[in-house]
Amino acid sequence: MSKPAPARSGPTTAVYPGSFDPITRGHLEIAERASRLFDRVIVAVGRHPTKAGFFSVAQRCELIEESLAHLANAEAGSFDGLVVEYCRRRNAKIIVRGLRAVGDFEPEFQMGLANRDLAPEIETVFLIPRPEQQFVSSSLIREIAGHGGQFERYVTPSVADALHERLKPKTRQTDA
Ligand code: COA
After folding, report:
1. Is the CB of 42 within 6 Å of ligand 1?
2. Within-domain flag for 1
3. Averaged in consecutive runs of 10 residues, what is the pLDDT profile of the chain (176 residues)?
4. Separation of 67 CA from ligand 1 center, angstroms?
């Protein structure tokens, strides 16, 4: 006896949330792989209630959009509050997270369980970044850049330009 065809629930939207301050090639690799797995991917900046961040949320979204330009089904977004509520608003049934070295596991496990408890209809999918991307993080790149080191290979050219611009010494007006 043949099995009944599974009910189609329409295109699958995934949200890849993070702080993306700024987006790195490590994040981009996860977004690219998610774009092959799901019909639509929203790379979404979570607005921190108290932390201003290095780049503004608007700048981070702009840099995400530029970095995703080659992916037809991926876009930038931003949200306040809970990620699961954002997923519901965007009709997304999947949360994508990158799982790097062992240190990522504990907090990701806790966040995954909390999100599942809050929204059982939403699944968290973990993707493992390439080994050469495992140590990359936004704050590490900001630190290398801040000390004048070579950080460009870890980010896209538009992010590198934005970092150079942001770190350019400001010319001070002095009274004569
Ligand atoms: N490549 C490079 N860096 C990566 C990476 C990858 N594939 N995956 C993670 N990182 C780095 C980030 O750059 C960041 O580095 P930094 O601390 O040096 O800046 C670090 O890992 C943290 O990752 P991030 O993805 O930004 O996650 P986060 O832990 O800051 O979480 C939210 C951000 C928005 C996902 C999370 O806080 C959230 O969902 N907030 C809303 C409230 C909520 O719903 N909470 C969950 C239920 S309690």
Report:
1. no
2. no
3. 69 97 97 98 95 94 97 98 98 96 87 98 95 89 95 96 89 58
4. 18
The answer to whether residue 138 is catalytic is: yes
- Looking at residue 67, its pLDDT comes to 96
Q: Would you state the structure tokens that stand for residue 1, as one six-digit string?
A: 């006896």
Range of the domain at 147: 13-167
* C-beta of 111 in contact with ligand 1 (< 6 A): yes
Per the domain annotation, does 172 fall within a domain? no
Structure pTM? 0.91
Q: Identify whether 133 is part of a domain.
A: yes
Give how many domains the chain has, as a whole number.
Answer: 1
Q: Is 17 in the pocket of ligand 1 (CB under 6 A)?
A: yes
CATH number of the domain that residue 80 is part of = 3.40.50.620
Is 51 annotated in the active site? yes
CA distance 123 to 92: 10
Query: Largest alpha-carbon pair distance within the chain?
Result: 92
Determine the Cα–Cα distance for residues 150 and 16; give it in Å rounded to an integer.
28
